[in-house]
Write the structure tokens for this entry.
Amino acid sequence: MRMSFRWYGPDDRVTLANIRQIPGVRDIVSAVYDVPVGDAWPEANVSRLVDLVNDAGLSLSVVESIPVHESIKLGLADRDRYIDAYAQSVERVGAAGVSVVCYNFMPVFDWMRTDLAFPLPDGSSTLTFSDDALARIDLSRGTGELPGWSTAYDAVTLERLLSQWRAVTSEALWEHLGYFLERIVPVAASAGVKLAIHPDDPPWSIFGLPRIITNAASLRRLLSLVDHPVNGLTFCTGSMASSDENDVPAMVREFAERGRIHFMHCRNVKRTGARAFNEVAHPSAFGDVDMRAVLLALSQHGYTGPMRPDHGRMIWGETGRAGYGLHDRALGAMYLQGLWEGVSA
Ligand code: DNO
């Protein structure tokens, strides 16, 4: 296992120098952020990123994410152009030494929360989600009411997008994913890159949109779309544990045994009702993820890939990007390494 840490580029308040001082962390998870979704990442942007990371004494081992253009997910006539651009980006990051590309196939929205600064009893703040709060969000005014969603859509654009999605069933979305992977998996294989899909977060439909990467059966189906070792998973414990139907340690055992987990996101959540949860501190005691069982399963199956502490709470007065402060994620990195040492003994 290689402990890694997400860095949002030169604008991130958490610096590479900060990350370099977290014991055991040498691998950076980052992306090229200044190229529009759908365009191929220019070589120059990729090498600038790699140089920045290397100059700090760290290495860029995971790209999270190369975003998938909406045309590909919708299966539109112009998707091949975007798939070609995606392939170029994969080739370029592979040539630059990146070994894993994380991506997701969620319609319109990426991960979704209904509160980014919910106060916990210990005085920290955290991200939360509940379907009830989501139901109160009015999308007729665009994404303005959504907390902190990174792609902002105005009302007209969002309505156009949502109406395009109304025609797309879950089965159609699966077909579009298969079409994409049939073309990208061979490119990734020859570029020396592993593909790691991130599950839908939360793992159920929101705003009536199809969401398909939600449970063990869907992970099996994903792997069988193109049954090749590079076609694999970002196993996100927090996303999967948001649904009480998912037995997270059993899933980790199954997919680690098959060698198809290429990247681990370790985060803990506490379910607070049906389709509602708070993100909590990483140790098992605070939430519904048995982190020890997860790491034990990985260790037993000889997992050598990257792992990162996923979202942290905001603690010690830190402010910044929700979920991506320094302190609680650094505590998470240390907890996970301690646990790893213990289960690997
Ligand atoms: C949230 C992250 C996601 C993830 C993408 C992967 O913090 O886990 O935004 O990066 O879904 O494509």
Observations:
- The mean pLDDT is 96.
- The two ends are 14 Å apart (CA to CA).
- The chain has one domain: 2-108+167-344.
- The domain at 2-108+167-344 is CATH 3.20.20.150 (TIM Barrel).
